[in-house]
Amino acid sequence: MNNIITLSATQIAQEIKSGKVSAREVVDAHIDRIEAVNSRINAVVIPLFEDARKAAEAADTAQRRGDPLGPLHGVPITIKEQFLVKGTATTFGLPNQKNHRAAEDGPLVKRLREAGAIILGKTNVSQLLIYIEADNPVYGRTNNPWNLERTCGGSSGGEAAIIAAGGSPLGLGGDLGGSIREPAHFCGIHGLKPTSWRLTNFDTRSDVFAGGQEVIVPQPGPMARSVADLNLMLDVLAAPGGERIDPSTPPVSWRNPADVSVNALRIAVYTDDGYFKASPAIRRVVDEAADALRATGAQVEAWTPPNVSQAVRLFFSIFTSDAVTSLRRALGPDKAVPQISGILQSSGMPRPMRKLVAALMQSSGQERLASVLRAVGARSAEDFWKLVDERNQYRLRFIQSLDAGRFDAILCPPTSLPAVLHGSTADLLDFDSYARLYNVLGMPAGVVAAGRVREGEESDRQPSKNAAEQTALRVEKGSAGLPVGVQVVARHWREDVALAVMSALEKYFRTQPGYPSQPSL
Q1: Cβ within 8 Å of residue 255, ≥6 positions away
Q2: C-alpha to C-alpha distances, 88 to 52, 85, 91, nearest whole angstrom
Q3: Is 155 a catalytic residue?
Q4: Residues 6 or more apart in contact with residue 39 via CB below 8 angstroms
Q5: Which candidate in 8, 155, 156, 433 is catalytic?
Q6: How far apart are CA 23 and CA 50, in angstroms?
Q7: Can 122 be counted among the known catalytic residues?
Q8: Could you confirm whether 18 is annotated as catalytic?
Q9: What domains appear along the chain, each with residue ranges and CATH number?
Q10: Per the residue annotation, which of 80, 122, 193, 277 is the catalytic one?
Q11: Model pLDDT for residues 125-171, shown as the tens digit of each residue
Q12: Of these residues, 8, 126, 168, 179, which one is catalytic?
């Protein structure tokens, strides 16, 4: 069993196909691991173990008959609670939705099943999927397997936690503002957010979450302990014909990362976005990644992204342009958790009151909260269209900056901090500028596990009156041993470039001391 749960999804598929191990043995090993660790991390919140065992028996029968086997035949996977799996709840952490049951699998889940994947269960999320913790009134709190006093991230936090803990080799997450990449970074695994519109959102209930919001587009994507496994899942999810399921999905061919010559790439790198300072360990692994790629022959040059503060403002402004009315409607009679109660309250304030409160915050040294407060809130249709046009113009300037340097990809921090303390995101509304930037731009972005925070490099942040900076300093203290990752970004529709660079970095970092292998739970 211990050997099985250390295998990648790619290895599991090969072992089952060859007959060296049965699907039932693989499924049982992962169920045993989930049952061993879940009481401490609370990652799998909807277990589907009996269904998984039956599916494994059927998979073994098909293998013995010599039936054609899909690329994921017999591979156990987990699915974020956000997605529609027949007969299961999709609540988004809302008690008023606890009786929901999906009538059918969503189209992406169907593709995974048709490829042979076996679903072990569904994993925990943040309430309404909008903050970087997996904690809600329906399922409770998920803990980081590296340190139970820390969050695993969100909203795909349960997925990251169970993969890191060895209970699942591969999972389906979703990313609106860093929700795949930050949990991957916090938990020491890999994840990829595809280009906006690459994959359909029909697996998510639009009646509850982000229905009609098509400027900053949530994207489903894979999470795993192996970069090769990310491509394995995306090969299935991004297969031809997506436009027949969802006409919003353009028929852009999926490219093989193996065809990318990393040594021929020009790569931009930055460790400071000029908005929120990243912790020392995160800056270190980004620099190490740059050096590793230079050693392969790639040209890696320092670069500064244009005006990240504008992108952060655009994210908050666009997402709250309806005064979060849709989120309030979904919340219904339920109480908002502390992590989002402030943003819900401030987004609904009349504009004159918001301006006054923002001015008071600014004068008291709370520049970050004041900036967010000025950005959020209701807008007319005309003002919303102006925001969309501003986003489009910003995206053009960003691409022009890449063009000027002839860059194919970008290396940078995934976010500014390692895994944060439970509840602390209430004061860290904008600490994830490194991730949200690429949701605003719609570019493919992944995180590759790189290392861990070393003793003596926890923080070089100066004391501040600013609440966000104070919280960031508190998060950094005691962070030694936590995983850290590197974010890899590619141009639109070039996920193959991102995955090729991530694969090269995984190969390098796995040989380095402190690589975040499976935590000891």
Answers
A1: 494, 495, 496
A2: 14, 6, 9
A3: yes
A4: none
A5: 155
A6: 14
A7: no
A8: no
A9: 4-312+384-509 (3.90.1300.10)
A10: 80
A11: 999 999 999 999 999 999 999 999 999 999 999 999 999 999 999 99
A12: 179
